[in-house]
Amino acid sequence: MSGWQAAIGVCHARGEGFVVVTLLEAKGSTPRDSGSKMVVTHSEIYDTVGGGTLEKLIIDESRALLALGVPSQKVTHFPLASKANQCCGGSLSALFEVFPAPRLKLAVFGAGHVGRAVTRILSECETRVDWIDSRPEQFPEDHFVNVRQWVLSEPESYLEQITPETLVLVLTHDHSLDYRLLKALLDETEVPYIGLIGSQTKATRFEARLRRDGIPETEDSRWRCPVGFASVKGKLPMEVAVSIVAEVLSLPVAGLAANPGVSWKSVQSVLGKS
């Protein structure tokens, strides 16, 4: 068990959902004071709010909220004698802040100018990004908590890690590598979206090569080239990146649930029971 502060960073780095539990108000004899915190994931806990039956109730409620997969906040009141069956006799209220795992997972191949710009934008979004390139010197020194860098001499080997819900952007410096990645992704995975940087001429040539290599037309609905909204003008890397990310975030699979929040009325209602 480690501190809750470090745990938040660990969970972000893993792309793992978590709940931050904060004791809002403690009255009478309680195992921990107001302000105590812990972090709960699907399989682990970090830090403690006192142990015993109370902590088990808090962990169970945290994991039930996490299973819903929706960002939310909730306040629950715990009279220790009646609800937690503890002899302390006090009472406390706990705030549950739910941070589910990002629903949008991307694999970005290429750490060139456009790849860096795309990843910088995605680092500010509710996404989990795996960023792949064979050239370690291409990655920037600054690291983003939701981006994991993969230095692979053969970027195609990353496909062993890919999951069916992952969205893919192929933004490399090498047309030959672009084609190998596209063919392998269509042939070996079930990813729903592959955005490929390039021109319409490149797209036409790649489509012809795919037919010659036995990839049927039915797979064409999974890839798009040129990637990005044509309505977003400009050729600078950041301008191209904006058009690409705008397209990705507009996809139906990229929809994020609204955060219902916690109302002040519900907080007052719970604290009034203390």
What would you say the CATH architecture of the largest domain is? 3-Layer(aba) Sandwich
Q: How many helical stretches?
A: 7
The sequence of SSEs as H and E is HEEEHEEEHEEEHEHEHH
Q: What is the name of the CATH topology of the largest domain?
A: Rossmann fold
Low-confidence blocks of residues: 256-271
Please tell me about this protein's structure.
The protein folds into two domains: 4-101 and 257-271, no CATH class; 104-254, 3-Layer(aba) Sandwich (Rossmann fold), CATH 3.40.50.720. Helix 3 packs across helix 6 (237-250). The chain is 31% helix and 22% strand. It has helices at residues 4-14, 52-67, 113-122, 175-188, 200-212, 237-250, 264-271; strands at 18-27, 37-40, 45-46, 72-79, 91-99, 104-109, 127-133, 147-151, 167-170, 193-196, 223-224. With 274 residues, the chain is an alpha/beta fold. It has a six-stranded parallel sheet with strand order 8-7-6-9-10-11, with helices on both faces. The protein has a five-stranded antiparallel sheet with strand order 3-2-1-5-4. Residues 256-271 have low confidence and may be disordered.
